[in-house]
């Protein structure tokens, strides 16, 4: 099995190191990841300046771009094989509910899905440095084998969130739906040392609504959450409603 790994926390982050270690027994593992943190860049692609890729070892590249750049460059140029699977993570912090729309981790898996390659995004739902990357990585090894055997539905990636608990306390996986984030207006509004106003978004830890069957509901109860995400964002139930507007 040929697997490409990427992330948005940067190539030296503990999550990607644990993931590469755990997946190594499955086959050939390549790491193509940002050379610095790129969290919350979503599906950004770099078009207005050149990218550099530094080879750090056999099949290991640090790229001066976004997670989406890494998937593009890795598959189209840097690697001399086409991956059977792309795994993005393990992110430091959960990517649940509406946060998937900001996530560089999830977007890297989206990019692979767009290119027709099965993909998994994986995040450790931690508010600190994270203790359970190894446990999460071992679960992804099992899941990767299963994805290799079964394949994935078209245009669909798996968004996995693992609670940051000791391995023996992590409960089995639940298949979940995307939940809802609770917005808190977390903007800091202050004056800088030169007397100018500044704003800083997102100082408060995100919280989620406890919706039955959702990603957050699973993780808060100690389960691993697996949400199948579809790249077609169309709200089919609204098509008829809007056609009824007769615009
Ligand atoms: Mg991140």
Describe this structure in words.
With 247 residues, this protein is of the alpha/beta class. It has a single domain (2-179, 209-243), classed as Stationary-phase Survival Protein Sure Homolog, Chain: A (3-Layer(aba) Sandwich), CATH 3.40.1210.10. Helices cover 26% and strands 29% of the residues. The strands form three sheets. It has a nine-stranded mixed sheet with strand order 3-4-2-1-5-6-7-13-8, sandwiched between helices. Strands 9-12 form a two-stranded antiparallel sheet. The protein has a two-stranded antiparallel sheet with strand order 10-11. The longest helix is centred in the middle third of the chain and has 18 residues, at 133-150. The mean pLDDT is 95. Magnesium ion is lined by residues 8-9, 39, 91-92, 105.
Topology at a glance:
Elements: E1 2-6, H1 14-23, E2 28-34, E3 53-57, E4 60-63, H2 67-78, E5 85-92, H3 104-114, E6 119-125, H4 133-150, E7 156-163, E8 171-175, E9 181-182, E10 187-191, E11 197-201, E12 207-208, H5 215-220, E13 223-230, H6 237-243
Parallel strand pairs: 1-2, 1-5, 2-4, 5-6, 6-7, 8-13
Antiparallel strand pairs: 3-4, 7-13, 9-12, 10-11
Helix pairs in contact: 1-4, 2-3
This protein binds magnesium ion (MG).
Magnesium ion is lined by residues 8-9, 39, 91-92, 105.
Task: Provide mean pLDDT, rounded.
Answer: 95
Name of the CATH superfamily: Survival protein SurE-like phosphatase/nucleotidase
- What structural category arises from helix and sheet content? alpha/beta
Question: If helices are DSSP runs of H or I spanning 4 or more residues, what is the number of helices?
Answer: 6
Provide the list of bound ligands, each named once.
magnesium ion
CATH class division: Alpha Beta
Query: What's the SSE pattern?
Result: EHEEEHEHEHEEEEEEHEH
Which stretches are poorly predicted, pLDDT < 50 over at least 5 residues?
none
- Across the major sheet, the strand order is 3-4-2-1-5-6-7-13-8
Oligomeric state, counting identical vs distinct chains:
single chain
Q: Assign the CATH topology.
A: Stationary-phase Survival Protein Sure Homolog, Chain: A
Beta-strand fraction estimate = 25-35%
Q: Work out the count of structural domains.
A: 1
Biggest sheet descriptor: 9 strands, mixed
Head-to-tail CA distance between termini: 51 Å
**CATH architecture field:** 3-Layer(aba) Sandwich
Q: How helix-rich are the residues, as a percent range?
A: 25-40%
Number of strands: 13
